[in-house]
């Protein structure tokens, strides 16, 4: 075994199986923080051991077993071992008797537990993305559009709050789901977002993470069949995931939406998205509610997914949907996306005014998103020198290698 290959294999394993490992440990230990710490101890031990002995046949089981031993070591040090043995014994007796389990999936159970109502929604989401999504602090910071230090503080405070409140790892009963549901949906959405366009690294996408978010979303929608936004979120993910095969070219290079081979889109998945969105809309109508933010985003994704060609996209409708989304969930990313839609519907000049206003307000400072959109608009207006400078500025801010390469090529090609 090439020792140099172990860190990469271990990182990939953790990204794929980390949430399930922590969820299994949390179910056994009854303590989310302890489960995460023990799992990290086991990963560190694997890094040293596998370089000597090679990667075991079932590396996920290896890490889980070692992590359980590390959890027991921690209990010994805190003189809680006997109590924990008694709890485990009681748990084993309980497991022997069949019982109704309202949350049948370990990862979803962990997600509901971490989104505890003693935490603010922001703290719920930050902590859960760290534990369930296995995202690094800088990746979570990018999703929140805040500094990494802010996210780190939120996670530390959330752990202290859960510890102070003595929150056990107990899946809530269905009548306790409502106050946690907003955070749970948001975590699934952000997990998918990171899988759809990775914050950093050498890969443009993380299909494994997106697939896990979609899997959890489908289970959740089945558990809360009367919640329109649960179905709408699944619809959004189905529409977006349908394009994965066409989003990268040879060597993993990103392929922008307008340039994608639409015959490679997953038509069955698009149809599933349509059915889900129709179900969400029917439920909203029955409940007397307007579309929520996930339904509006799904409707936008549906416009793209059902356009037979890029130039057949219904951009005026997409502008209207972004305006509705901006009223419901205002934010600089929504406004920037609206500007892109405006540029396609009416031309780049009106869109550039929107982008310039965002820049004047200091929105999205430190992100490559705003200069990359501004560069495209300037290029379409024939302001080549300014466009080149903006593409270069965006490339300098991009943390994903593939994304940076695209921006550098755009700057060099002008």
- Element string (H = helix, E = strand): HHHHHHHHHHHHHHHHHHH
> Which stretches are poorly predicted, pLDDT < 50 over at least 5 residues?
none
**Global mean pLDDT:** 87
Query: What class would the helix/strand composition place it in?
Result: mainly alpha
Tell me the radius of gyration. 23 Å
Individual helix count: 19
- Major β-sheet, in short? none
The percent range for strand residues is: under 5%
Q: Based on DSSP secondary structure assignment, what is the total number of beta strands?
A: 0
* First-last Cα distance: 46 Å
In percent, how helical is the residue content?
A: over 70%
Oligomer: single chain
Tell the overall outline. Answer: globular
Question: What features would you describe in this structure?
Answer:
With 414 residues, the chain is mostly helical. It has helices spanning 6-29, 32-53, 59-77, 81-96, 106-114, 121-131, 137-144, 148-164, 178-196, 207-223, 228-241, 267-287, 293-305, 315-328, 332-346, 348-360, 369-380, 384-397, 401-413. The mean pLDDT is 87. The chain starts with 5 loop residues before the first helix and ends with a helix.
């Amino acid at each position: 075994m090439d020792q140099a290959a172990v860190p990469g294999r271990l990182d990939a394993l953790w990204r794929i199986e980390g949430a399930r490992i922590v969820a299994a440990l949390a179910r056994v230990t009854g303590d989310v923080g302890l489960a995460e710490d023990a799992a990290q101890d086991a990963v560190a031990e694997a890094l040293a051991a596998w370089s000597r002995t090679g990667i075991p046949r079932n590396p996920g089981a290896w890490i889980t077993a070692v992590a359980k031993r590390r959890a027991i070591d921690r209990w010994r040090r805190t003189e809680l071992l006997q109590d924990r043995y008694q709890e485990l014994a009681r748990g084993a007796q309980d497991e022997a008797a069949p019982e109704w389990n309202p949350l049948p999936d370990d990862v979803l159970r962990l997600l509901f537990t971490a989104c505890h109502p003693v935490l603010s929604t922001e703290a719920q989401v930050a902590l859960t993305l760290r534990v369930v999504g296995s995202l690094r602090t800088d990746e979570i910071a990018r999703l929140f559009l805040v500094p990494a230090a802010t996210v780190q503080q939120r996670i530390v405070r959330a752990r202290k709050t859960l510890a102070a409140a003595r929150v056990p790892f107990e899946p809530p009963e269905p009548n306790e789901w409502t106050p946690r549901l907003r955070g749970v949906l948001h975590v699934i959405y952000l997990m998918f977002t990171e899988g759809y366009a990775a914050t950093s690294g050498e890969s443009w996408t993380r299909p494994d993470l997106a697939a896990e978010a979609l899997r959890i979303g489908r289970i959740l929608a089945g558990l809360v069949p009367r919640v329109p936004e649960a179905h709408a979120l699944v619809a959004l993910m189905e529409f977006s995931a349908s394009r994965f095969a066409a989003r990268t070219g040879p060597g993993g290079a990103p392929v922008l939406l307008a340039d994608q081979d639409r015959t490679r889109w997953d038509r069955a998945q698009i149809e599933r998205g349509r059915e889900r969105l129709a179900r969400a809309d029917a439920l909203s109508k029955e409940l007397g509610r307007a579309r929520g933010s996930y339904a509006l985003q799904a409707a936008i994704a549906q416009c793209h997914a059902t356009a037979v060609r890029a130039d057949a996209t219904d951009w005026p409708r997409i502008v209207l949907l972004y305006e509705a989304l901006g009223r419901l969930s205002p934010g600089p990313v929504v406004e920037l996306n609206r500007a892109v839609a405006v540029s396609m519907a009416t031309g780049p000049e009106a869109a550039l005014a929107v982008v310039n206003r965002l820049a004047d307000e200091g929105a999205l400072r430190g992100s490559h998103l705003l200069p990359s959109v501004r560069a495209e608009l300037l290029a379409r207006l024939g302001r080549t020198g300014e466009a080149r400078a903006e593409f270069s500025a965006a490339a300098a801010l991009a943390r994903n290698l593939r994304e940076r390469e695209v921006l550098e090529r755009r700057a060099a090609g002008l």
